[in-house]
Queue: 3 jobs
Job 1
Amino acid sequence: MSNIIGIEHDRVTNTTATDFPGFSANGENAWNLEEFKKKFQLNISYMTDRTANFDMIGLDTSIANAFRRIMIAEVPSVAAEYVYVFNNTSVIQDEVLAHRIGLVPLKVDPDMLTWIDPTAEEKDKFTDENTVVLSLDVMCSKNPNAIPGNTSSENLYKNSNVYAKDLKFEPQGKQSQTFAKCPVVACDPNILLAKLRPGQEITLRVHCILGVGSDHAKFSPVSTASYRLLPTIDIQKPITGQDAKDFQKCFPSGVIGINSNGEAFVKDARKDTVSREVLRHDKFNGKVKLGRVRDHFIFNVESTGAMSPEEIFFKSVRVLRNKAEYLRNCPIGNLN
Amino acid sequence: MTNTVKMEEDSFNDLLQPDFKGKSLTDPINTAEDKWNLLPAFLKVKGLVKQHLDSFNYFVDTDLKKIIEANRKILSDVDPEFYLKYLDIRVGYKSAGDPKQIEVLLPPHECRLRDLTYSAPIYVDVEYTRGRKIIIHRDLEIGRMPIMLRSNKCILSGRNENEMAYLNECPLDPGGYFIVNGTEKVILVQEQLSKNRIIVEADEKKQIVQASVTSSTHERKSKTYVVTKNDKIYLKHNSISEEIPIVVVLKAAGIISDLEIIQMVCGDDSVYQDLFAVNFEEAAKLGIYSQREALEFIGRKVKTIRRMNSPKLSIIQEGIEAIATTVIAHITVDDLDFREKALYVAEMTRRVIMAMHNPKLVDDRDYVGNKRLELAGQLMSLLFEDLFKKFNNDFKANLDKILKKPSRASEFDALLHINIHSNNITTGLNRSISTGNWSLKRFKMERAGVTHVLSRLSYISALGMMTRISSQFEKSRKVSGPRALQPSQFGMLCTSDTPEGEACGLVKNLALMTHITTDDEEDPIRKLCYILGVENISIADSATLHTNGTFGVHLNGTLIGTTRYPTAFVTKFRKLRRTGKISAFVSIYTNVHHAAVHIAADGGRICRPLVIVENGVSKVKADHLKNLKTGDWEFDDFLKNGLVEYLDVNEENDSLIALYEPDIIKSTTHLEIETFTVLGAVAGLIPYPHHNQSPRNTYQCAMGKQAIGAIAYNQFRRIDTLLYLMCYPQQPMVKTKTIELIDYDKLPAGQNATVAVMSYSGYDIEDALVLNKASVDRGFGRCQTLRKNTTVLKRYPNHSKDIVMGMRVDENGEPIFQHGALGPDGLGEVGMRIQSGQSYINKCVPTNASESVVGGAPTINQQQQHRETPLTYRGPEPSYVDQVMMSVSDNDQALIKVLLRQTRRPELGDKFSSRHGQKGVCGIIVQQEDMPFNDDGISPDIIMNPHGFPSRMTVGKMLELVSGKAGVLEGTLQYGTCFGGSKLEDMSKILVDKGFSYSGKDQLYSGITGEALQAYIFFGPIYYQKLKHMVLDKMHARARGPRAVLTRQPTEGRSRDGGLRLGEMERDCVIAYGASQLLLERLMLSSDAFDVDVCNSCGLMGYNGWCPSCKSSEAIIKMTIPYAAKLLFQELISMNIAPRLKLSDVF
């Protein structure tokens, strides 16, 4: 069977891989490490401190999907979990403010913290090893040096907007040494938390702990981690002239080129967004076949900022390996 | 600087900004498309609830003065010298004051918070005699009038946004309601059959034709019928004991000659003459030929209800009285000239004969033109007049009592006595508005449910309530007529917005651009008609009345003259109206069947503005619209310049109205301003409603009122009984023009959810929705409930009073659990979490409150004993104290209000709905990684099952998704306005340009397996509303719990922690199945089992092993019966029936 998923105008065909043992009588299809090593490729398209885009070619969908799922839900990260409000005279309610603070991504290496013990007594629960403490202490006042005529709140008042950067790190115990090089700050300093007017103030303290995305989305280290399959465009009959130009227009720019003979050719199928526009036109009926490569995953990992995207991916690999390790050590599985 | 000034102005202004919606002044003006700008201009002038405000303003400014006029003088029966005359009446300002400067006690929001009434003083100027002197006294306060918010007597009228904010008011709040004792009350618009108009009806089965008219004047209300009986015609009236032959009535009214009767009723039509001839026999048989005979005949039949001390009348006087004042009471008779009345009766008779001849000539009761809407002003006026009359009567009675006393020490001053009763008017008005019971003594009218509490569930529900019209028809009656959608509702009443169920079709809503008229003066119009060539009816010859080509001219249903040139007359009349010489709300139309021109100037007619078309050309031109855009012109300028006019339903029926400019043909008279104005404010929220099955739009109208969102700009300042707020409301991606007009985009109720239409997991069948947990984590559908808890600290007659005591502490100095949320003042601390069982007000009442005071004032050191009666919170989830308010209500008792808040994230079973009547509950909340995702890694917030579409046919929802998706990709908002909106082709084009499929369907990957899904999934944003029905408020279970005192059975209902009933049908199932032990256990052992001693010899119940009737303990048997059975036996015994039990062994 081919490893191309068929993109028809009304359906997707051949979506499931069949290369597993016992599927067909002739082929072995048993997984072979050497063969996998030969086949597997990982190409990095680009990598910035927030985004990584890389191709994984030649591995099973389940493994690729496992990486995606683990990145979203099981790679631990640090987020605000407990908010102790001492004073809040702003219009925003305590719960809503706490919720907003919780969703602020923090620049903390999750490896610097240990897991919290949920069974521990309230007073022993938080230590300098498992908790980062932030505090927010803002008070709005009138700006004595306001420029007359300018009625924007930034001009009239001081501290009228409370941002994520106003969350101040309070090192506890030995944290002043361990976190000396990397004090805890919000990844995006300009996230608006609340708005104040003169006389209003917010004083609160935040305990940030380690958690996973499956528990709450705020612990997810990625904005999104997902993949798409590499598109293929197979021109089966030559398309020329005006048709070629129309054909080109059915795809995003740069996907289809037209050569000197006026014949359309596939320049870069990777750029295609698979809008299936070409399948709408009768004149291209039978001339083109769209598809996607089933074992070519174009990953896109967007970090929230706490970790670099490659670190997130490596951690997902580690988590998967630990899971495999666990399964292997499982007493039920160990028959031999 | 100029920029900020603009921002402060009325919010409608940005709709009129030169560069509104991407159109700048330099853009070419397309009349067909830009004509809709008239709509915001209309709403800027009229507002959404202008009908209420207009009616109230009319009442306060004009009608009050008329009432004073009608009840001007108070005379004394004892002292003929004495008189008191009302000169003037004013609400809210003194004679020297400025009508714009209203003295109300407190701003409206303070009234809401402090449970007060928002009212202004009513001042009268009186002239009366004191001894020999005539004294004029100004500014006498006779009571306080509740003031409608935003009316011209309200302090909010004409305020800008800043001033509103200063008064804690929301600038988007429509007003139009009252605040009475702290609650916001709306007087719903009442629909009724028009008064003082002839309605002809026929009963096919009984062969009866009847013309009826309900006469309504300030003094009385009565109904007169002209009916057929065995093909003869009679007049029927409640105060006349028998039906009177019509000829007798006409003769009594002074039309003695049979020829003239025939002329007045039938004209020269021989068919009508034949039908009518039989009635002459009737009169001849009775031997009535002269007016005197006729009057005596009628006089004998009158039911005389004479009031005390009025002189007895002779029979003929009774007859004259009946004809002059009782029959058709709204036509007044001066100097015993009955001609007008005779003409009216003849007209009714003629209509009956016409209907006898041609059964099609009957009137339709349900036709909107035959309806009148009664608004707050009219109802208040009825109420006030009643109270004012009572006030005057009481005053007079009081006066007479004092004047009767022969000697008085000082000179009598009437004013000293007028103030005593001043409370009656105030409390009368307040009571009626707060209870909704309108009881009017003089009409013997008793109407309940006139007012309703303004629903503040959402902005839309409040707005919807202001446009609601309730019908007088009984809900239980099974007639479809009044409930059906009338074609004449077009453009006047919303076609979609009506409740389901019993009130369906009876409760209606106004369309977006309707206006309800107030009364206009009749006299100037009558004079004008005569000037325009109408022959005055009082000098017209009866012979010419019904000759061919003569049209009767009717003013408010009464014949005032005839004309032979109806078309010319109507055209001239309209021309005068268009130039503003006559009020714009006077309507005129020709009825060819009745050969009549009708002019209506009465109040309560529904009308709407339309563009005038002359000679096949719309009068509104591009440069007029340019004037509107630059702000040089307002809506009223269009009216003044005769480009736009108001048509009521009857006149609309007489016009040819083009929907769009290209549809104009030569005979077209008018052009619609905008087609989407057939819908009202609530139905206007639906995107692409013209693509939906119509009941779906109706369902959305009901659900839009339950959606949680932002309520008002002052929502955090409000302390309402129950308030639902959404944490992060969004304006819809797909808007409508109505949404902008009613400011729904500023106070939205819902969020744009990314929806995937696919089946997933099986937890989505039967309209259940699948929610994404990450979306929920991030704030999707998060809402707050705020609940008010009130208490008053009472004072008791013995000088003791309720107090609030501080928290109690345990030995460690920590407050005890119950007082964990209290502060040292004994009130809940703002921001504290309060759990079930904790109290938020530690109120204590004195133990000796009922004891009387022992001798004078209590001594200071006398220590009061108090008992704790705390207000305790009960609920499955903890709440937080949001606000605590302490104030003093109007009877000087301390008033404490505590607002408790809960923040809720969506959970299983919470109800959501799109804007297309597609409601569903959350069936499962799925982890984000399990959700399907597209090429960009987007996973849906909601998964909706595709089975919701085929049977519901909500194509509008699909279009919303496609338009919404295009809007998201392009970064713009799209429109789904009714009969317009963004076109599907354009939206598909955007999708394709952005690299998506034209159809809105994306290729998705399964989140669970990671493989591509085999079907393309319809995927995009749809605006979802969270409805107020939440599981947390409904969940209930019980194992053991409280029981009712009387029956000892478990209590009923969630609020009383009641049991779950095994009902009759369930019982039947168990019986049929034969599970007798289960039955016994469910119905007795788990309910009200009771051990009783039964005496087997007498069969009665005993106690303690002793039978009191047999005086023995021999045959006592212990057994278990339901307590309810024991109760039944005892009740029977109390009725002297002895139920005797005979016990024997079964096995």
Note: The longest strand of chain A covers residues 288-303.
Job 2
Amino acid sequence: MIKVKNLHKKFGGLTVLDGIDEHIEQGEVVVIIGPSGSGKSTFLRCLNLLEKATDGEIYVDDEQINAPKVNVNRVRQKMGMVFQQFNLFPHLTIMDNITLAPVLLKKMTREEAVKRGQELLERVNLSEKADAYPAQLSGGQKQRVAIARALAMNPEIMLFDEPTSALDPEMVGEVLDVMKDLAKSGMTMVIVTHEMGFAREVASRVLFIDQGKVMESGTPDQVFNNPQNERTKLFLSKVL
Amino acid sequence: MTGLQVWWADFCGDFYSSFIREDRYKLLLDGIGVTIKVSLLAIIIGILIGILIALCNLSRYKPLKIFGGIYTDIIRGTPSVTQLMLIYFVIFASVRLDKWIIASIAFGINSGAYVSEIIRAGILSVDHGQTEAGRSLGLSASQTMIRIVIPQAVKNIFPALCNEFIVLIKETAIVGYVGLMDIQKAGDFIKSATFKPFMPLLGTAVIYYVLIKLLTLALRQVEKRLRKSDIR
């Protein structure tokens, strides 16, 4: 589904991604772990073109999406993104946050979008908040709305950029629960996180990225219980 | 008669000769009309120019950026009286337009420079994550700007814009320089007829104050509605 070939990203003189090759199959839940500054988030942001790769190729469904004349907006509609800081639109109600993109991009009529919005809010247990504004919600609720907003576009892939890192500890669980449900439903997901327990439980594959390279890749059992790479061992010894 | 009674009798006499005799209040009423007319048109022109210049300043295209910079620089660096007279007596000297329209254009050009800076700051004040969220949903850059960034920017800059409107209204008190009879000029006219400066100047000040007070109250209502989404 996603193929990444020799991906490089430089910010000025700083090399953040140093040649990443990766295949992500349909229905896989790939969890990316690694120390801060290792390039995890940049990798994710390159996938939906929020960052422009310096070199290398990214294919989604066999179409190269970082080629010059690609319609970036159409590519992004296939990929939902959930941010660390939620980034809900504060001037819109929860329902309008969810329906804005599908209606504006003519994927649904207003009525269809509202109906879908209600389904999604039910799925994240926030039906009663449809008419509230983001400022009235807790962090965990905001992040669940952000997930619903991304799902409203019926994406093929969901990208999560440290979705629980900005949350108070007691709210992490409710967001992870929603993500677990989503994984069970067969959604293809790429998740950058520091929640090792979650990675162990939900991931079909774990990638350890350090210094802009994939240092280790395997099932949670392989990576957590029997890491081969020295850096992986060092990192896990600090976080587990 | 006590001193107070003498003063009061003087005051009333002064009031009568300044405003009532020869229907002089009508001068002020006409003046209010001129001030409002000039200010309103100038505010509209100022907002339009302000948006254009702000877009120039935020543009990635160098010549536009330079143009925006020079415009703001020149307007802010010269007195508005000078600008008004230049535009009226030089640039529009041979153009047949109503005086008040030319004056409005002059004030609009002036205000546009300040409004553009307010708008630019407003757009930059919206968190970049908002743009990223919009783009990640598949919205285009302009859809993101119009539906997500600008509505939030407007809310952020509203108080600063109101302030600019108020400054602009008071600034129009110099239109007498090009022969328009606004509130200030009407007051001056009465003063030169009665030779008593106190009452016409007091009247002028009160009228400006009331006008601006009413505007402030109205704008505060608008701001309240804009802040609707801040409720917790």
Note: The radius of gyration of chain A is 18 Å.
Job 3
Amino acid sequence: MFDFTGKTALVTGASRGIGRAIAVALAKGGASVALNYAGNEAAAAEALELVQRAGAPRAKLYRFDVADPAACNQAVEDVVADLGGLHVLVNNAGIAVDQLVMRVKDEDWNRQLQVNLTGAFNLTRAVTRPMMKARGGAIVNLTSVVGEMGNAGQAAYAATKAGLIGLTKSVARELASRNVRVNAVAPGYIETDMTAALPEAAKTKLQELIPLARLGTAEDVANAVAFLASDLASYVTGEVLRVNGGMYM
Amino acid sequence: MTTANVEQKVKNIIADQLGVGEDEIKITSSFIEDLGADSLDIVELVMAMEEEFEVEIPDEEAENIKTVQDAVNYITTHKK
């Protein structure tokens, strides 16, 4: 559906869940894909195979911590050299450590901020020069419905996701003159490992809040990301595209 | 490196970054007024010069580098 022929994409947190589905969706469009992952080797190998089978001309795994700025700079350099340029960046890597605010530990707050928000910043800064030089590029940040709504038990996670919206809009303004577009996708409740942990009763209750009356799939989100990353979205920048079944409008 | 060398290299960088012909770049040329640079171009120029000459150009100094001459002066006085 979307044409990424001749393009290279870097997807963070690509070994599982939404990130994996995004990597596959971009590969289906003909993109070469760099898959970042934090440490789950088995899942990463599986994701790589799916991406290759989906039709990526070239695909490669890159294990690094997005919270480490030096590692991000190095990774971007490596991807450009290995896969021929870098045209699409998808900041998807994220962690959630749910706790009521009075019980949030400093290290959990800091780690969520580092991975979810600083990680996206690190890579955005690193890709800016190659994309500006190429006079074009697309960055898609994965935020969340809770970044706009808030959620009890997710003060830190929601704060990082709200922060990503500010990052998205600011960088969209900075880089627009170079035809680098920056957008965000805000998923609602999606069936992934992250939400599988929820008790059944909680899931049923959630579904009542969703007009489309089901949890989303990783593919639902991946399709929205692929659109924003593609040339079909050439006049879209600074946008937050909600993919939530209507639970927040 | 002589001042003439620095000047030539600075001109190369400017030509590359801004996509202008080297013959259009005079020592007195202002990046913004004469060479059509915008704020992003200036940041890119500063970063390219930092890399080429292995000098650090702090933001508050970069603000004062407005012409080719300013850049050459800064580099020749700060280069190790």
Note: Chain A is about 50% helix and 15% strand.
